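New to this. Please check this protein:
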Amino acid sequence: ALAFLNRVDGGGRARALFDTATNMTESAAALACLIEAGRAEAALGAFHDRWQGNRLVIDKWFMLQAVHAAPADAAAVAERLAAHPGFDWKNPNRARALLGGLAANHAGFHAASGAAYRFYADWLLRLDALNPQIAARLSTAFETWARYDADRQALIRAELERIRQTPGLSRDLTEMAGRILGG
């Protein structure tokens, strides 16, 4: 109901709920609506300040921003979040929160520019050196590439080929990229 009302009142009720929330679940739901309404700047800081002692909640803070970013801004938001001092790419939950959130933002992930594909592939390569299993698992975001139009297919194929041809790549990610490409 809050998500529907958010579209009607531009985030007014979400802001009121955020300001009066007594638990993380209410705060996170209201924050998601505020992000979608483009009115989250103050709430993002307040949420982070309130929950900074809880790593799992901060993972959610990263994920919410990636999932609910405006499609045209999704790759840039993910890049900004990856540069945040609290983002530790060596923490698998944190990396999964950001990258999984970006992939779950379908309109943003599949934006025609291909920026999210490049960002995502870059991070898969970076993660592969540290945690090949996580990188291979996250690569499944590209599994549905053949369902998209020819331009997006070409962009995804190029990133998968770039991944597959990277020297020193783990067996896990090499196999996944090959399987996704059908070979």
Observations:
- The first helix runs from residue 2 to 9.
